[in-house]
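ARCHIVE CARD
CATEGORY: sequence design from structure
SOURCE FIELD: tokenized fold
FIELD CONTENT:
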């Protein structure tokens, strides 16, 4: 497994309960600015959100099938429309990509490998597909593939914001209000849907282990919600 590490130790924080999306974005942007100025360490922040949709710069109006179902938040991360909600682990990744080689493609590939390694810990084979963002699972011999994880990032002053989301046990019916990432010919799945009834704590442990293999050492940190 290729590494994209730097010399520093990455702070690792986990929020319990549901974090409002606007608050998460504000805290992320503040932390990224502090990392860029050298005033804070890199951070991975694990959260869950209340049910909501986010629309990236490439989102198409026609892909929002049920605009009144949940709040829709405009976001500057890459990608189109996606869903966040309880039972989905979101990992916000504030890393210094400048110190990790300044290779955006390699960084996104490392995020994909992080997700794939995490899923492998539960016996799930995650795969990437050309032209389709995220991580996919082949469901049967018919060639059906469902998305289990989304990836969307942006960089500011070479610091990454946003990150990944893995469906642990969300209500998959909530995806019916959108065309996820503009892809209508494939579905969505989760660890629970695949028969892996894992706790969020177990997923967090696997996420951290896989992250350290690819990005380097981590250290426990207070949650950003309580840092300020």
């Amino acid at each position: 497994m290729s590494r994209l590490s730097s010399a520093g130790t990455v702070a690792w924080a986990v929020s319990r309960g549901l974090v409002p999306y606007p608050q998460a974005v504000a805290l992320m942007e503040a932390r990224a600015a502090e990392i860029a100025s050298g005033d804070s360490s890199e951070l991975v922040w694990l959260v869950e959100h209340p049910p909501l949709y986010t629309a990236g710069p490439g989102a198409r109006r026609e892909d929002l099938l049920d605009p009144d179902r949940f709040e829709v938040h405009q976001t500057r991360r890459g990608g189109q429309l996606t869903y966040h909600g309880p039972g989905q682990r979101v990992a916000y990744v504030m890393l210094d990509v400048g110190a990790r080689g300044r290779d955006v493609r390699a960084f996104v590939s490392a995020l994909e490998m992080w997700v794939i390694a995490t899923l492998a810990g539960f016996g799930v084979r995650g795969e990437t597909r050309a032209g389709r963002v995220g991580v996919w699972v082949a469901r049967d011999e018919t060639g059906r593939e469902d998305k289990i994880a989304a990836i969307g990032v942006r960089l500011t002053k070479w610091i990454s914001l946003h990150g990944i989301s893995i469906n642990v046990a969300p209500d998959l019916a909530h995806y019916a209000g959108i065309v996820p990432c503009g892809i209508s010919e494939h579905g969505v799945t989760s660890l629970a849907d695949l028969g892996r009834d894992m706790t969020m704590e177990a997923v967090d442990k696997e996420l951290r282990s896989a992250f350290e293999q690819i990005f380097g050492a981590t250290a426990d940190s207070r949650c950003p919600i309580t840092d300020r």
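CARD ANNOTATION: The mean pLDDT is 90. The first strand starts at residue 10 and ends at 18.
SHELF: design records, drawer C
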